[in-house]
Amino acid sequence: MDYRVIILIFAGALLSVSSAQTRQFYFVNTPLNWRDAQSVCRQNYTDLATIENTADVDAAIVALSNYSGKAWIGLHDDIVNGWRWSLSDSSFYGDGESTYRNWYPGEPNNMYGQQLCVVFNGNNGFWDDLDCSVALSFVCYNGELPFGFY
Fold first, then answer.
1. Which Pfam families is this protein grouped with (predicted)?
2. CA triplet 92, 39, 75: central angle to 5 degrees?
3. Host domain of residue 121
């Protein structure tokens, strides 16, 4: 077999591992409103969690480990443009992040016209819209590549 083919296959495998490892989720069990949670995540990590696909849902559930309640993630309704992620750098996002949604059936419902932020359910990973002023735990993520994946 041609060694160039083997190297190409190996390089492709490394690339897929590194792209799968680009985010690490962190559960912060300190109840804060959405804006304050966003601030803490931006100071200590990258931002509130952005969830692109079912693998991210599974990773966030693992980060919440034994917590089965609701926790803030970075999705919010800015009223002008609809549902958007907290991190405003569009060059950061992958293919599915602008369109992937994991709403609980019947959500979002914007009950009383006040539900502009999104919570992640630690039991099943489904999302629900909620009033941003509610104090909840939250999920942050670090968008930097882990050591060894450069």
1. Lectin_C
2. 50
3. 24-142
